[in-house]
Amino acid sequence: MSKPRPDRAAEVLGKVAEAAGKVPLKDRRDFLMRGLALAGTAVAGPALAAADKESFMPPNVPPWTRSLGRGVVTVPYGMPSGFEENVIRRTVPWLTASNISSISFTPLQDLQGIITPNGLVFERYHAGVPDIDPGKHRLMINGMVERPLLLSMEDLMRFPSVSVIRFIECPANGGMEWRGAQMEALQFTHGMLSCCEWTGVPLSVLLEEVGVKKGAAWVLAEGADGSAMTRSIPMEKALDDALVVYAQNGEALRPEQGYPVRLLNPGWEGNTSVKWLRRLEVGDEAWYQREETSKYTDLMPDGKARKFTWVQETNSVITFPCPEKGLSSRGRYEIEGLAWSGRGRIRRVDVSLDGGINWQPARLKGLVLPKALTRFSLMWDWDGSPALLQSRAVDETGYVQPNLSQLREARGVESIYHKNAIHTWRVAESGEVTNVQID
Amino acid sequence: KRAGYYGFGEPATEEMIAGWDIDVRPDGTGLPPGSGSVEEGEVLYEEQCAACHGVFGEGEGRWPKLAGGFGTLTQERPEKTIGSYWPYVSTVWDYVHRAMPFYEPQSLEDDQVYAIVAYLLYLNDLVEDDFVASRETLSAFEMPNQDGFFVDPRPDVRNAVCMEDCKDPSEIKITWDSTELGVTPVEHFKTDEEETGGAAPVEADPNLGLNIYQQ
């Protein structure tokens, strides 16, 4: 091995330096824009793709194999490839009066496994996302307790912590579909749903630390945002599995998810998992706050309404194929989907190809955890015939996910929340998939 | 473990608690001293609330309707307002005080909240125009839909695990097709030609109960 010539070495080092600095942080936007442009041509230009084949396909060696990539910390906090620019949260503007009190949806059609990446967890705010300095944030615990307490984040993080994988679902997930099929995309029919690993302190530990007085039966959770969101939580849940969490998927909560601290009520409607948590009050009765009277109560056909409908009942949906991702040709496919239950583990999921006439058991893939998303799959040889795909989940209590007609019969169509019905995708001969409802 | 086992944090003093503990319960617990009349409330409401909620509480655009809707809870399009639906007036006081006006929450004095609550009751025809809201008058106040709620009775629906010949194939009908409405933003996976609705629509069919996220 001979040493490179000095001038050659300088040239080489210059190239390395150039590559290392390929995407300085200040130009990240440019990089993303270029990523978008490339992604655009990759999807839209069959003619270009054919031309590319000359240089990109074997036996030719593509340019990324014959050049240097970006150096370390070019992007100190990593971002998805620019080619994944379509994997984003989306909203439906006409759903709400303002994006300050609104909802966005997780792109379930693009995700794998059961963990939702932090940047894609659906959003639901009532007064926007506050910018909270964790050094200035405090959690107060007061009411029927022996030692009313004020905790800094540093204090809170000194308590023994736990980590659990649990879903959070907005009880209005699918609520636009009570009267009929309206949303043309999986992201909008089921995307108010996410599942993360959450880390924090059991609420029971904090209640023990302040000393709950005799007769206490409820805990009020209150947020520090402009809506000062409140919900009454019964003591039974508070002592069972409620958590005060400060991390998701290994890192601090995202501002959208309550940074620096939120409540997590596993299996319960997302609204009860109050974000930007500033106060827990112990009391002997429920408070009947706006979010448990005007909202998050379920109107029945007789004009009476259910209150305290906390549990998210067993639900499931096929995530492939779906309207966003149809079938490109006949042949073998893996039907995949997600199932979940606020009452515990998923025991089984069945899949129908013919609108519920016949069913076959799907395989549960990977982790099957209580109150967590569970992935299921079924191999399918598609012969090009039209199909009506459905999934039906059963949880460990024996509860079987119902048909929409059964739900409508019991509840009418004005309850807004808790629509956990079996969902139908129609697969056309073209392979296109649409959201339909069948009788 | 006994209370105080870890010993982290500092005691929350009564003064600290007074600043943050703002919740009000149906029995009136938490209502502060003070009062406000319908007359005072009208001025405040028109200044601070009417732009979104309408002069008569009818709700501008998609902003929440606050008044009316009596007798609609069993109808096709129920109007769930303070008067027609809310069970307790304590919730009105609490929520206005903690979260309204939307653009400037927790900016109202206690007397102003009492006045606005008095005016909201007046807009709903629940009090006369000489009503004065206070801890005394609100603690005893009964709302029309106070008994309109009951505790969750679920599971209320039971499906069976049938595996074969569960339905008569001839009876399967597609009753709804989402693409017929064309109200979904689909530009990220459909081209313009494929979009059934043509240009992206901004208004949904009012008969479909879509506007679930008012506020």
Topology (SSEs and partners):
The complex is a heterodimer of chains A (439) and B (215).
Chain A: H1 6-20, H2 28-44, H3 46-56, E1 138-143, E2 149-152, H4 153-156, E3 162-169, H5 186-190, E4 193-202, H6 203-210, E5 218-223, E6 230-234, H7 235-240, E7 243-248, E8 251-252, E9 262-264, E10 277-283, E11 298-299, E12 305-307, E13 315-320, E14 331-340, E15 346-352, E16 360-361, E17 363-365, E18 374-382, E19 387-395, H8 404-411, E20 424-427, E21 433-438
Parallel strand pairs in A: 1-10
Antiparallel strand pairs in A: 1-2, 3-4, 4-7, 5-6, 5-10, 7-8, 7-9, 11-12, 13-14, 14-18, 15-16, 15-19, 17-18, 19-20, 20-21
Chain B: E1 10-11, H1 14-20, E2 35-37, H2 38-48, H3 50-53, H4 89-99, H5 110-123, E3 132-134, H6 135-139, E4 149-151, E5 174-177
Antiparallel strand pairs in B: 2-3
Keywords:
heterodimer; A: alpha+beta; Sulfite Oxidase, Chain A, domain 2; Immunoglobulin-like; 3 domains; globular; B: 215 residues; alpha+beta
Give an overview of the whole structure:
The complex is a heterodimer of chains A (439) and B (215). Chain A is α+β, with helices and mostly antiparallel strands and 439 residues long. Chain A folds into three domains: 6-78, no CATH class; 99-292, Sulfite Oxidase, Chain A, domain 2, CATH 3.90.420; 315-436, Sandwich (Immunoglobulin-like), CATH 2.60.40. Chain A has helices at 6-20, 28-44, 46-56, 153-156, 186-190, 203-210, 235-240, 404-411; strands spanning 138-143, 149-152, 162-169, 193-202, 218-223, 230-234, 243-248, 251-252, 262-264, 277-283, 298-299, 305-307, 315-320, 331-340, 346-352, 360-361, 363-365, 374-382, 387-395, 424-427, 433-438. In chain A, a hairpin with a 2-residue loop joins strand 7 (243-248) and strand 8. Chain A is globular. The termini of chain A are far apart. Residues 24-47 of chain A have low confidence and may be disordered. With 215 residues, chain B is of the alpha+beta class. Helix content of chain B is 24%, strand content 7%. Chain B contains six helices and five strands, in the order E-H-E-H-H-H-H-E-H-E-E. Chain B has helices at 14-20, 38-48, 50-53, 89-99, 110-123, 135-139, and strands at 10-11, 35-37, 132-134, 149-151, 174-177. A two-stranded antiparallel ribbon of chain B has the order 2-3. In chain B, helix 2 (38-48) crosses helix 5 (110-123) and helix 4 packs across helix 5 (110-123). Chain B starts with 9 loop residues before the first strand and ends in a 38-residue tail after the last strand. Chains A and B meet through strand 1, strand 2, helix 6, strand 10 and strand 12 of A and strand 1, helix 1, helix 4, strand 4 and strand 5 of B.
